[in-house]
Specification:
Blueprint: E1 5-6, E2 18-29, E3 32-42, E4 50-55, H1 65-76, E5 81-84, H2 87-95, H3 104-121, E6 126-132, H4 134-144, E7 151-155, E8 180-185, H5 193-199, E9 207-212, E10 221-222, H6 229-247
Parallel strand pairs: 4-5, 4-6, 6-7, 7-8, 8-9
Antiparallel strand pairs: 1-10, 2-3, 3-5
Helix pairs in contact: 3-4
């Protein structure tokens, strides 16, 4: 990591009360019959006509500091959030070892199972899919396939493998006709910004790109860039909530 690198202290002071509940999502897969899940909900009695399904990245589960912060920030703004583990992460946690990600069909099937739970709990809401890295890519693939949702946001879209910009992962962008927010660091090794800007020209929906100065794929920043973890945390929160209110104004 290096001594000049500062990890983000994501958890922020609460704006309004929120609640966190555990859940299990039925899913029959490879040595898995259910997926662990977390709900971050607004205060008891609060109503919302928007709800978020938030998916984790390939190497980090649903309760990483970044996703903890994102879920809490949305819940404190009155938007309920469901997080879940993909099957390979469920197995890895149970077996106490690292496992490679499932193949795309399994990831998408489990993602759909989680989406069904979100829709079942908030049937009248407008559904937003968000995700970190791989979880964001799976969200975008479901949107391209026509799954029922209303908007997308990405916490670091993995446009290509690190060091391999020729292997671009945007072939499905033209099939997405939804508003979308791309939050990207300008040091993201998995997303060369000129390539993303070009790919977004093919995006069929209203895509908004916000570049976070000095941030890498995990939104970590370096002291030498003159930015603090709180600077980045506040910037991300402000951009995410402002975009959400523009794309899907609260009813």
């Amino acid at each position: 990591m290096g001594s000049n690198r500062t990890k983000l202290a994501w958890m922020s002071p609460k704006r309004v009360p929120s609640r966190r509940l555990t859940d299990r999502i039925p899913f029959l897969g490879d040595h898995v019959d259910a997926l662990s899940a977390l709900w971050d909900l607004p205060a008891e009695g609060a109503e919302s006509d928007r709800a978020v399904l938030l998916a984790h990245g390939a190497g980090a589960p649903m309760d990483t500091p970044l996703l903890e912060w994102a879920a809490q920030s949305l819940a404190e703004a009155g938007v309920p959030v469901l997080r879940f583990l993909y099957p390979y992460t469920e197995r890895a946690r149970r077996e106490e070892r690292r496992l490679p990600p499932d193949r795309a069909p399994v990831l998408l099937a489990s993602h759909r199972a989680a989406a069904q739970v979100l829709r079942g709990r908030f049937p009248d809401a407008r559904w937003i899919f968000g995700g970190k890295s791989m979880g964001g890519r799976m969200s975008s693939m479901l949107a391209a396939e026509g799954d029922a949702l209303h908007a997308l946001f990405f916490l670091g879209y993995p446009l290509h493998p690190a060091g391999k910009p020729e292997r671009e992962r945007s072939e499905h962008f033209g099939a997405i006709e939804l508003p979308a927010l791309f939050l990207q660091g300008d040091r993201d090794a998995l997303c060369e910004l000129p390539l993303l800007e070009s790919a977004l020209q093919r995006f069929s929906g209203d895509a908004h790109l916000h570049v976070v100065r000095g941030a890498d794929h995990g939104f970590d920043v370096r002291k030498r860039d003159g930015r603090t973890p709180d600077d980045v945390r506040q910037e991300l929160r402000t951009e995410l909530l402002a975009w959400l209110d523009r794309a899907l104004p609260p009813g």
